[in-house]
Amino acid sequence: MLWSLAVARNKTVQLFRHKNLPLLLRHRSFSTTGLYGIPHLKSPKGFQPFVDEAIQRSGELVNYISSKPSASELMRAMDEISDTVCSVVDSAELCRQTHPNREFVEEADKAAMKINEYLHYLNTSHDVYDALKKAEQECHMLSAEAQRGIKSLRVEMERGGIHLCPETLDRVNKLDIGISHLCREYNQNIVTDPGTVDIYPASRIPKNLHHLFKPIYKSEPLITKDISESKDTVKEKGFRITTDPRTLDSVLQLSSDDEILGCGSYAELAVKSNMASSPKVVMSFLHEMSKMVQAKSTEELNLLTKFKREKCGQNNGDLRPWDEAYYTTMMKSSVYKLDSLVAASYFSLSNCIEGLKVLVNSLFGVICHRIPLAPGESWDPQVLKLCLHHPEEGDLGYLYLDLYSRKGKYPGCAHFAIKGGRRISQTEYQLPIVALVCNFSGSRNPSAVRLNHSEVETLFHEFGHALHSLLSRTDYQHFSGTRTVLDFAEIPSNLFEYYAWDYRVLKTFARHYSTGDAIPEKLVESMLGAKNMFAATDLQRQIFYALADQTLHGEQPHPLGDVSSVLAELKRKHTNLEHIEGTHWEARFSHLLNYGAGYYSYLYAKCFAATIWKKVCKEDPLSPIAGNALRTKFLQHGGARDPAVILNDLVPDGIYRSYNGGIIPDISSLCEEMELMEENQKKVHLL
Fold first, then answer.
1. Is 210 exposed, middle or buried (0-12, 13-18, 19+ CB in 10 A)?
2. Of 372, 491, 577, 634, which is the most exposed, with the fewest CB atoms less than 10 Å away?
3. Whole-prediction pTM value?
């Protein structure tokens, strides 16, 4: 989408204003405001005038752009349109996903539909497109960021087909509508029709499969014979749960028609603006990763098969696909004697929030402190608001924390932008505002909520995204924070996961909820050991998913509608586990459509993050020198610079290699970390 990320254009903050006043005085304000501090949103009905005003202001700016002003003024006007329209887009999205009041959600949904209709008009405006083409020819005297902005806006419009003849553009629009409807149906199927199996008693469901099952209560008497299931049968039934794959097949059929946009496949269209630049580069990267992980993954499979045979008293029993998660959990527990409840006793939610504060203070010299919310600003009593403040630069941005699960809330963990940063003048900067949303269960007292370590890792992951937005200092909202290509945007989040595993970091905040003792180093070593056990198998699975994503969205040498056989062949080539006929995991793997042809980005970014951790952060993870490098060479640029330039500036010695017009990350740091490389392979990658 050309216009994305929300910013309210009339809410600006002077860059150095009030920086010497006491913190509590500066943030003491009790006047009533609206949701997220947006005056219009004092009530659900406020969404209507909010969207109407955004459309009116944007229309005025489009009229101005139609007069073909100077390239500099055009870029400013374009960014203000993005700023204005996206204030509706992003606030509506956050409201739809998190607000407990159904009237707010419904009004936000209406606003989202109305603004999306207007977005279609903006993205197909020939007046805007012609002005952009003219400005691109005249912008050589502008800043590099402005030149990059004008070009990227023009390219984004062409991705939507603006440059095509009317008949072809109409066909593109109809395809988009069809794909949109099918994607909605696909995602709804995942939620409403996950498949059912009958299992009695429920106590026989292995814990690692609980998330697949929901209890069904029946009022009529249940008359049964002995229908108790063995654990093996339960695991197999859980594995075989599926949904109808036909909707996905239909989406892929429509998406394969992207030659009308000058691309050989949807994957080519989706990837060409990324760092990888083409499906060929992506596939080369994934095949390199697959080859590297194969030997270690086979070794892990043999180890797990042996463990199963010992537990079952068998001499030659094979490991079936539904056995893997069950025996993996059992073997980790057996080898490392790790009790997840013991580990969780050191990770109260309040301690983890303090850990985030320690991190930003140590790395960036930034104070992260809680400030009061104005009446009407919050959407739930448990929402917190933090301010990031630098003693010399003043306030840097604001972070809402919505961390507890509740009915109707977005089910996962995510970072939502509410406002993007942008420069208003030489002395004024619009500060970024973001929300970090999680679904931690238990008491609503943060001292009583204890997280398992995977939740801690997720919290740090999303905080990495939030910092990318909060520490960004781009001139234009169009490039603020995570507004960059997907295979680059995932790097900070992957990097900050490392901080959730490093004992030198954990000991600063992970304390026992009752004794106050710091987490023992031996416990952290056991946690790391359990994490790394079967890590190659986990990585191989992610490689397979990424290959499947690229293949299904790539050129179609296979018959459409034959998705399952294509995936079965990929699984045989790139994993060690058998394919089970009749299972359609792809029909409930939402990333295939929500991030079509982009799933590789997680692995791609993981390789970059491993190199940055090793060469910049690992020696002293809380070093302000490392923090300054991360902030000034990476985070503050958002999407305003070429990602390859940013990466090479941060780690100049071989963080990637050029290939076929794109770049491939150096995989050696990740492979060494996971002990995937033999000595001769290490030498090759060092050359």
1. exposed
2. 372
3. 0.86
Integer Cα distance of 622 and 562 in angstroms: 51
Query: Which tens digits make up the pLDDT trace of 383-431?
Result: 999 999 999 999 999 999 999 999 989 888 999 999 999 999 999 999 9
Task: Give the sign of the dihedral formed by CA 548, CA 549, CA 552, CA 555.
Answer: negative
Q: Return d(Cα 215, Cα 199) in angstroms, integer.
A: 10
Q: Please count the helices (runs of H) and the strands (runs of E) in the chain.
A: 27, 9
Q: Is 485 helix (H, G, I), strand (E, B) or coil?
A: coil
By annotation, the residues acting in catalysis are 462
> Following DSSP, what letter does each residue of 336-367 receive, concatenated?
H---HHHHHTT-BHHHHHHHHHHHHHHHH--E
* Cα separation, 232 vs 312, whole angstroms: 11
- The CATH code of the domain at 23-167 is 1.20.1050.40
Residue 446: cis peptide before it, omega within 30 degrees of 0: no
Encoding tokens for residue 434?
């973001």
What's the angle, vertex CA 339, arms to CA 338 and CA 344, rounded to 5? Answer: 115
Neighbours of 452 (CB within 10 A): 14
In the block, residue with structure tokens 């913190």: 23
CA dist 130 → 162, 316, 523 (Å)? 10, 70, 62
C-alpha distances in angstroms, 671 versus 34, 544, 549? 49, 17, 23
Q: Are 521 and 510 in contact (CB under 8 A)?
A: no
Strand partners, 437: 402, 414
CA dihedral 520, 524, 530, 534 (to 10 degrees): -160
- What sign for the dihedral angle of Cα 451, 453, 457, 458? negative
